[in-house]
Amino acid sequence: MHPKLPDILANREAPIDNEQLIRYLKGDLDDTTRHEIEELLTNGNQMDQDAMEGWQQTPEPEKMVQAAEDINRHLARQLHPALPHKRKRPITQLPVVWWVFGLILIIVLLAWVIISISY
């Protein structure tokens, strides 16, 4: 493994949460908070800036948040699929159980016959 591989995300700053981003796009934030977000996006990478441009072009940012949550939920299901349930067979379909039951019955009958003959 490459020695710098674990440090790929070490310089990444904390992302802006969805609620704060929506408030920014609606214009509900005060000037200082708005300036902090713009500063984070300006100093961020090109992908963050492109994402912000896309958010600004959407007419309803709330729908974008719901779509992002749906995508994350779908990806989580694909990455961590549920374990397959083992199909349980009824006891009548297990031939080993029937063989064991028959063997025990034969042993009990033989014991009864031997005991009854000896008395």
Overview of the structural elements:
This protein is mainly alpha-helical and 119 residues long. The protein has a domain at 5-79. Helices cover 65% and strands 0% of the residues. The protein has helices at residues 18-26, 31-43, 46-57, 61-79, 95-118. The relative contact order is 0.06.
In one word, what is the shape?
rod-shaped
SSE pattern: HHHHH
Low-confidence stretches: none
Mind describing the biggest β-sheet?
Answer: none
Q: Strand pairing plus helix content: what structural class?
A: mainly alpha
Tell me the strand percentage band. under 5%
Total DSSP helices:
5
Radius of gyration: 34 Å
Number of strands: 0
Distance N to C terminus: 81 Å
What is the overall pLDDT average?
76
Name the descriptors.
single chain, 119 residues, 5 helices, 65% helix
Topology:
Layout lengths: L17 H9 L4 H13 L2 H12 L3 H19 L15 H24 L1
Quick synopsis:
The protein has 119 residues and is mainly alpha-helical.
